[in-house]
């Protein structure tokens, strides 16, 4: 079947130089819906998965498979930032001009707007931080991967692009992956709002579907509710759909 022009997908994968040696790069790469042999080649992954050494090397390049949060600053510092951003500075100037121009009522009104705006901004920041913390709970603590031809359990933070992950009933999916073997039913409600599980199977991509609708892709933080499959990881950490929501 003739395929439409290939889309470009932003994910973490090891690019290959002209000489064939693997080199790391982060940027625009081939869509994970490409034919499986091409995806395996780009990810540098064979039927035996990554070697332990290669997985460690990729983790050093791409970082841990975690939902990243910015470091929390003190409340006083955040308040100062809200009171000193460009729009706030313009309002401060307008308030000062109002007082100088003999319109104190307008001046106090502008100051009130500055304070209320800063309060709402601080509240939104705290709510966003709590939301990101809640997203972290969707990731499992451990994941089953195939490395050096053997199945082993690793911390979810150690899952790297190119890893082969084993998915079974009851497992939380540790990263965005393309199924290469088997079939599973997955609860995608956290991403799509669908109340019923959907089937995901190792099969060619269907033309014209959105990424979340592709029948051969599974996503970080969703839950396998039935079946068994093996998938090749194409995105981890902040490059997953879950990571984009957190960002």
Automatic annotation (TrEMBL):
<feature type="region of interest" description="Disordered">
    <location>
        <begin position="1"/>
        <end position="55"/>
    </location>
</feature>
<feature type="domain" description="Cation-transporting P-type ATPase N-terminal">
    <location>
        <begin position="30"/>
        <end position="103"/>
    </location>
</feature>
<dbReference type="InterPro" id="IPR023298">
    <property type="entry name" value="ATPase_P-typ_TM_dom_sf"/>
</dbReference>
<feature type="compositionally biased region" description="Basic and acidic residues">
    <location>
        <begin position="30"/>
        <end position="43"/>
    </location>
</feature>
<dbReference type="Pfam" id="PF00122">
    <property type="entry name" value="E1-E2_ATPase"/>
</dbReference>
<dbReference type="InterPro" id="IPR004014">
    <property type="entry name" value="ATPase_P-typ_cation-transptr_N"/>
</dbReference>
<dbReference type="InterPro" id="IPR001757">
    <property type="entry name" value="P_typ_ATPase"/>
</dbReference>
<keyword id="KW-0067">ATP-binding</keyword>
<keyword id="KW-0547">Nucleotide-binding</keyword>
<dbReference type="InterPro" id="IPR059000">
    <property type="entry name" value="ATPase_P-type_domA"/>
</dbReference>
<dbReference type="Pfam" id="PF00690">
    <property type="entry name" value="Cation_ATPase_N"/>
</dbReference>
<protein>
    <recommendedName>
        <fullName>Cation-transporting P-type ATPase N-terminal domain-containing protein</fullName>
    </recommendedName>
</protein>
<dbReference type="InterPro" id="IPR008250">
    <property type="entry name" value="ATPase_P-typ_transduc_dom_A_sf"/>
</dbReference>
